[in-house]
Amino acid sequence: MLYTLLFIILAYLLGSIPFGKIIGFHHGIDIQKSGSGNIGFANCLRVLGWKPAIIVLLGDVLKGFLPVYFSLSLLPGQGATFVALSAVVGHVFPIWLKFKGGKGIATGLGVLLALNTPLAITSILIWIIFLSFTRLNSLASISMICCLPILTAFIAQQLLSLSLVLLMIGMWTHRKNIYNLLNHREKRLF
After folding, report:
1. Which pLDDT does position 113 carry in this prediction?
2. Domain spans in the chain, listed from the N-terminal domain onward
3. Is this structure's pTM higher than 0.85?
4. Which of 2, 16, 62, 143 has the lowest CB atom count within 10 Å?
5. If we measure between CA atoms, which residue out of 14, 33, 16 comes closest to residue 24?
């Protein structure tokens, strides 16, 4: 129990590392005051360009992947699932940024890569398909998280509860994007 609690705390702190803010600062830009104000991949791509955005994406994926990967062999039962959720919550509500973080998609993918790689790869393919047809990152992300519980039911039933929580978090973090999509105001990624 003590190890589980320690992993949950460490996953939250690791999830809270704001790679978008750090990389933006390195380029002399406050990413929270530029573009959409989000610290994630899409806003970094628009504001900073491809190379910095890829670094942010990799950082956000790794901070979900690493704590879950290491907890899988060290924690009993569903411990890794709680660690996974903690990493995503850390990204969405980071202690370092007064609890105003990103949307949790890349960190959620990192978590899925550690828990069930086929599920993560299938989710990424759905995101790529929707993005290639619409060029709307938010719509691709929303579509991916909406498909996640369905995919989980076929690929990894033991992760169904986690997928439903990730769906709720993702829909909440994309509430402004959903409003913009419904009113045809959402910006395209490219």
Report:
1. 97
2. 2-182
3. yes
4. 2
5. 33
